[in-house]
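Lab notes, practical 5.
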Amino acid sequence: MKEVIATDSGPKTIGPYSQAVRANGFVFVSGQIALDPSTQKLVSGEITVQTERVLENLKAILSAAGSSLEKVVRTTVFLVDMNEFAAMNEVYARYFPERAPARSTVQAARLPRDVRVEIDVIALA
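Output from the prediction step:
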């Protein structure tokens, strides 16, 4: 069984995809960028500001799906500039202080709306 998750607490999708899908005991959250859910506008600022907004968006969508950051088992982080890895990682570590999920981090040539970071997650439902 597949259940589409949609919440006003997270940014509206900017394409033909769901914010998240719950299936077989997992929640798959689409990649989030630094969009403010209340305005649908990009949050400007350094990589740390964008990373925090992205993680807050993920947190809100996971909550709407009945999950949480504590239940995340896998993340993928996309960065435009790998030189910003340490700054992103500093913020990321605050959201996953213990028992961090498995993770891949890759550099992407370009991300939607020219943001600096995008993160997707898989969590237990």
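Observations recorded by the TA: The longest strand covers residues 72-79. The chain has a mean pLDDT of 97.
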